[in-house]
Amino acid sequence: MNERVKVVVEAVVASVQAALVDKQVTELEYRTAVRYLMKIAEERETALLCDVFFNSTVVATKARTSQGSTPAIEGPYYRDDAPFVGERLKTYDTDDHKPLLIKGTVRGADGNLVDGVTIDVWHSTPDGKYSGFHDNIPTDFYRGKLRVGAGGGFRVLTTMPVPYQIPNKGPTGALLEIMGGHSWRPAHVHFKVKAPGFETLTTQYYFEGGDWVSDDCCHGVDSRLVIPDAVEDGARVMNIDFVIEPAHAQSGVGA
Ligand code: DHB
Ligand code: FE
Question: Is the whole model's pTM more than 0.85, yes or no?
Answer without folding.
Answer: yes
